[in-house]
Amino acid sequence: MRIAVFGAGGAVGSRVVAEALARGHEVTAVARRAVPMPAGVRLLLGDASSAEQVERLAAGQDLVVAATRPTPGSEAELPVVAAAMLAGVARAGARLLVVGGAATLVVPGVGLPLHETAEFPAELAAIAQACAEQLATCRADAVADWTYLSPPADLAPGTRTGVYRIGADELLVDADGASAISMEDFAVALLDEAERPAHRRARFTVAAS
After folding, report:
1. What is the pLDDT of residue 130?
2. In whole angstroms, what is the distance from residue 179 CA to residue 47 CA?
3. Secondary structure string (H, E, C) spanning 133-193
4. Consecutive sets of 10 residues in the chain, 209 residues long: mean pLDDT of each?
């Protein structure tokens, strides 16, 4: 499979690149500036907020992964990028897998999205709102072949186990109330969806098993 990863230099994007490469896929990394990449990965420079550039960079790809993340203060870019990615990949004829946020997942037993609970950190309000708009942008699109993957509440570097649980719109928590997955296993889940699509034009979530 030919896969282009936008935001390939980031914490999640770099792990998606590594996982895709390990599975034998043909990987193109897309970033705004030159960043080190593993051997065998083609690096192209591009702007994910430009539908024209996305279309050009997605041409000939089977799948495009949107793993970009805005810098603090630039959160409003997130839904803009989503719209550009959706338009660009649709014109290029590729699938789109969006790395989203956890804030819109409904907390079990509470009935509210995570970002609307009293415990949600105020300093994350801007990125939470941006992620909500990003998801809404995807759901409003009826042309692109998109999938939106939300992480659990805690997404951090860790160990690749290859094992995880799958959910839909509800936050996945364990018996102790923890909601987490390693970035490595998150990349595993994303590539599993890439290889065996099960959530076309839908959002799903994953968490450690």
Report:
1. 97
2. 32
3. HHHHHHHHCCCCEEEEEECCCEEECCCCCCCEEEECCECCCCCCCCCEEEHHHHHHHHHHH
4. 97 98 98 93 96 98 97 95 98 98 95 94 95 98 98 98 98 94 98 98 97
Q: Say if residues 169 and 105 touch (Cβ distance below 8 Å).
A: yes
Question: Which residue has 């996982």 as its token pair?
Answer: 19
Whose tokens are 């415990």? That residue is 119
What's the half-sphere exposure (Cβ side, CA atoms, 13 Å) at 114?
Answer: 24
Length of the chain: 209
119 with 110: CB under 8 angstroms? no
pTM above 0.90, yes or no: yes
With beta carbons less than 8 A apart as the criterion, state whether 148 and 136 touch: no
Cα 195 versus chain centre, distance: 15
